[in-house]
From TrEMBL:
Designated name of the protein: Transcriptional regulator, GntR family
CDD domains, per the entry: WHTH_GntR (cd07377)
MF annotations from Gene Ontology: DNA binding; DNA-binding transcription factor activity
Keyword Membrane recorded: no
Taxonomic source organism: Thermophagus xiamenensis
HTH gntR-type domain ranges (all copies): 14-82
Gene3D superfamilies assigned to the protein according to its UniProt record, in alphabetical order: Winged helix-like DNA-binding domain superfamily/Winged helix DNA-binding domain (1.10.10.10)
Keyword Transcription listed: yes
Pfam families: GntR
Keywords from the named record: DNA-binding, Transcription, Transcription regulation
Length: 334
């Protein structure tokens, strides 16, 4: 009976849990399995094909998450829906929502092409919220896309999810050791290489100032900035936030938009012109920055491309890590 429903080819490159899922879906399409019909037990499949119970459980849990299978305690697994074209369900956990994350989200949804339903959540860099959101939903989705930020105990929490269903976004911490597929930014080299792109323009200024509050900001921004300044012998300063007065002949590199607003306002009070008297580089590009103060130079990853890469990674089920492209968008402020 099992082999009429489940077909596993050990020589096939496709993961065995995925072959179980596809076998059930195909059996439903062919009318071999009908609504409320009982499926072979986990032990029966594991024994018949000499595979682990965990492999079978992974397949059944994904079918449960898609609403196709239900489990009845003490009895087993049953077909709950014969609508096998039902879309996958993706748990998407962002750190916070802002203009450039909106670009990322919209691109992700667009490139999924309607093939998945996405629920979005935010942890706001709060470790307790992060843990609660992930663990309370650990068997309800087919895939988990997570921005880990720099929170503690991330690996401990992720270990409670199926490794085959987790994707990391934006950061790829060293302690993860490429365990999960991801689309990430290399903040250290993105900062260093971006400043190298603008080296000719930076030479007309006396000093580079990085506003670096720490906390949620990636440490790579700091290390990449220091490396650039030391290699190219630029005088530099690192401050936790922008405080007036703005100083003529300085370039300010700003990770958050609040400091950008304060800087531009102070320049207006002092009649200083961006790109002539003061240089400005803002991290993370948005459409608004093309207009503000005649155009703000940005050092930014391509968030639209990040959304596209993420969608392709999830849909293809590839287990790779992709570095997202970054560039210096030179405008009038430099």
């Amino acid at each position: 009976m099992y082999r009429k429903i489940i077909n596993i080819d050990k020589n096939k490159g496709e993961p065995r849990y995925r072959q179980i899922i596809n076998s059930v879906l195909q059996s439903i399409r062919m009318g071999k399995l009908k609504n409320n019909e009982k499926l072979p037990s986990v032990n029966d499949i594991a024994g018949a094909f000499n595979i682990s119970r965990d492999t079978v459980m992974l397949a059944y849990n994904e079918l449960k998450a898609r609403g196709i299978v239900r489990s009845v305690p003490g009895k087993g697994y049953y077909i709950d829906s014969v609508d096998v074209e039902e879309r996958e369900r993706i748990f998407l956990l962002f750190d916070e929502f802002n203009a450039f994350k909106e670009d990322l989200y919209n691109s992700f949804i667009q490139h999924l092409e309607g093939r998945a339903m996405v629920d979005i959540f935010f942890h706001h860099f709060n470790p307790e919220v992060f843990a609660s959101l992930v663990l309370d939903r650990k068997e309800r989705y087919t895939s988990y896309v997570i921005m880990p930020a720099n929170l503690p105990n991330v690996l401990e929490i992720l270990n409670q999810l199926s490794q085959k269903r987790v994707y990391l976004l934006d950061r790829n911490p060293e302690y993860i050791n490429d365990r999960y597929p991801c689309v990430y930014q290399d903040f250290h080299w993105d900062m260093y290489n971006g400043l190298c792109e603008g080296l000719g323009l930076l030479m007309k200024y006396k000093k580079l100032v990085l506003v670096y509050p720490g906390g949620k900001e990636p440490e790579g921004f700091l290390t990449g900035f220091k490396l650039f300044c030391e290699r190219h012998r630029f005088p530099y300063q690192i401050i936790p936030s922008f405080q007036p007065p703005v100083l003529k002949g300085h370039v300010y590199i700003l990770p958050n938009d609040r400091d950008l607003v304060h800087l531009v306002k102070d320049m207006g009070h002092k009649k200083l012109v961006a790109g002539r008297d003061v240089g400005i580089i803002s991290l993370n590009d948005t459409g608004l920055k093309e207009i503000v103060a005649g155009g703000i130079t940005t050092l930014s990853t391509d968030f639209v491309e990040m959304g596209k890469n993420l969608a392709q990674l999830v849909l293809s089920n590839k287990k790779i890590c992709l570095k997202n492209p970054s560039r210096l968008n030179i405008r009038n402020s430099l």
